[in-house]
Amino acid sequence: MNQGWIYRDKVRPIDAGLTVLEYYTERYHHSGSEEWLKRILSEQILLNNQPVNPHTCLQTGQNLTYHRPPWKEPDVPLSFEVLSEEQDLLIIAKPSGLPVLPGGGFLEHTLLWQLQQQYPQDKPVPIHRLGRGTSGLMLIARSPLARSNLTQQMRDRQIRKVYRTLIGKSELPDHFIIDHPIGKIPYPSLGYLYAATPDGKFAYSECQVLKRRDQNTLLEVTILTGRPHQIRIHLATMGYPLLGDPLYTIGGIPKINDNDKLAVPGDCGYYLHAYQLAFIHPRTKQLMTFTCPDRINPKYHDSLD
Fold first, then answer.
1. What pLDDT digit, counting tens, does each position of 122-146 carry?
2. What is the pLDDT of residues 148-166, one digit of tens each?
3. Would you give the DSSP letter of residue 148?
4. Which domains are delineated in the chain?
5. Of the candidates 173, 231, 171, the residue with the CA atom closest to the CA atom of residue 205
6. pTM value?
7. What is residue 101's DSSP assignment?
8. DSSP assignment of 203-241
């Protein structure tokens, strides 16, 4: 069991006039109105630190807190390799299966929590994210200088990220570019998720075929932008979803499942590995390049040989 968590919200003008029950039911789709009603009545949800009637109308600027009791988190691989450790930053190799940030039932079983336990004096911050099922290189800031500088490099698209992934047997060109926009679409239980959509944001991926086999194709993908699940969505738009991807199908949209259980972005099963990372060091201004051959996703080693 973890220690539980307090989720804090400030009422926005757009939400003023909603009842407390309407607010949580409409904003957080992972639970239904009955579940939220039970939490309000059991005083897990407070308004300005006081118990509240579920039918109380909200006003702009009020503070809501949801005191979630301790819960048992799913088991995940918690260990990770530190490839470089210095005053301003860390380079780590994340295993597949470890979430980066809290969410979806994960709090302490996340990379962020583990970093905070190992480096409590630094308040380490991931500069970019990897999906739960993605393995490989991550850049972590340890100082305010690094956090500010590297975040700006991310905004300016100065950080180069190269991935390797597996799709099915293909006749794709040796080199090709995908620039389909990516944006939010409605999705049950989550409210929305990211997918290929004509009115989404610009996204750009450069792809190179490394190996062609009878059963699969090994690709190297360099992304200029960092949209959520970009590589998974982009290759699916080409008609080649990542092998084992439980969520995205041809067209870069979520699969329609025959059963009641809907896949979510954090579900694993696909192979995607952050192979190379390059950036300008925030203090020395030197170009730094790191490479991480995959030793942390053994399920796919035979496919990579």
1. 999 999 999 999 999 999 999 999 9
2. 999 999 999 999 999 999 9
3. H
4. 5-68 (3.10.290.10), 157-270 (3.30.2350.10)
5. 231
6. 0.88
7. S
8. --EEEEEEEE-SSEEEEEEEESS--TTHHHHHHHHTT-P
